[in-house]
Write a structure and sequence with these properties.
transmembrane, 2 strands, MetI-like, mainly alpha, MetI-like fold, Phosphate_PstC, cell membrane, two-stranded antiparallel sheet
């Protein structure tokens, strides 16, 4: 009888504990949607605040400078004492120089690394190489900048004597190294998602390992690979410290990659460091350049989403 009473006592205690746990779970279940909605609203409101700030300050800039001169002008001389010129094309061209060079470095190397990790490397090798590769993404960009200025540029000057200490080639190569892990990792994920049955079918038909990789797996994962490339290039367009340290501060409207350049982000850094007073035209110009950069990045992200949906393969 005593043992039965003890069992009943324990069962009642268990029931009380379970009811308390259920109440706690119900409370958490009710609170979590509210917390998640608040988090989402903070993200949305922050984005709206950034965009509205850019729009209002850019509008103030265009009250002082003609939008036609800004969009189609080929000279960017905001600090000219006689007649400042605000043609943004030299800054855009400088940004595109670095981004194109970075893409030429990162795209072939990144896809090659992705093919190796996905199709050739063993599980053990993949677990070793992939984290080491992704460490490159965690290196501070200012370190990359000094690496470009003090190591890559002198090395390139041995090959190209006419190369200036500040140029577009060196930061372009280093930015390519910086975005390489993004392309390699995302492309490898896209290739790994291709079903093995497709590989086995191609091998059964007599295709070699290389032919399967290049002619079967690569086209099947094309949407993910292109999306990774577009996202990486948009990251290169918005890079700041590397081009500020190794690219120079000379906006030029030409296609020479051996001389000093200035990108949109480098100009923003220059003015933000105290070269212009609050409320001046030069001050508002950084918002106009920032809005232009925002439009570039937005278009690149929209392009990546369109490509992902347009060329996505479903298995």
């Amino acid at each position: 009888m005593a043992s039965q009473g003890l069992e009943k006592k324990h069962s009642v205690q268990d029931m009380i504990a379970q009811s308390r746990n259920k109440k706690g779970k119900k409370f958490i279940e009710k609170c979590m949607p509210i917390i998640l909605v608040i988090t989402a609203l903070i993200s949305v409101l922050t984005t709206i605040g950034i965009v509205m700030t850019l729009i209002f300050e850019t509008f103030e800039f265009f009250q002082r400078v003609s939008i036609t001169d800004y969009l189609f002008g080929t000279e960017w001389l905001p600090f000219s004492g006689r007649e400042p010129l605000y043609g943004v094309l030299p800054l855009i061209l400088g940004t595109l120089k670095v981004s194109v060079i970075a893409a030429c470095v990162a795209v072939p190397l990144g896809i090659a690394v992705a093919i190796y990790l996905s199709e050739y490397a063993s599980d053990k090798t993949r677990r070793i190489i992939k984290p080491i590769l992704e460490v490159l993404a965690g290196v501070p960009t200012i370190v990359y900048g000094f690496f470009a200025l003090t190591f890559v540029t002198p090395l390139l000057q041995e090959l190209i004597p006419s190369l200036k200490i500040f140029n577009a080639l060196s930061p372009g190569i280093v930015v390519g190294i910086m975005i390489l892990p993004m392309i390699a990792s995302l492309s490898e994920d896209a290739m790994s998602s291709v079903p093995n049955s497709i590989r086995e079918g191609a091998l059964a038909l007599g295709a070699t390992k290389l032919e399967v990789s290049l002619k079967v797996v690569l086209p099947a994962a094309l949407s993910g690979i292109i999306a990774s490339v577009v996202l990486a290039v948009s990251r290169a367009i918005g890079e700041t410290m590397i081009v500020s340290l190794a690219g120079g501060a000379t906006p030029t409207f030409d296609f020479n990659v051996t001389g000093s350049i200035q990108t949109m982000t480098a100009y923003i850094v220059q003015v933000s460091s105290g070269d212009a007073g609050y409320g001046t035209t030069i001050y508002y110009s950084i918002y106009a350049v920032g809005f232009t950069l925002f439009v570039f990045t937005l278009l690149m992200n929209l392009l990546a989403q369109f490509i992902s949906k347009r060329f996505r393969e479903e298995y």
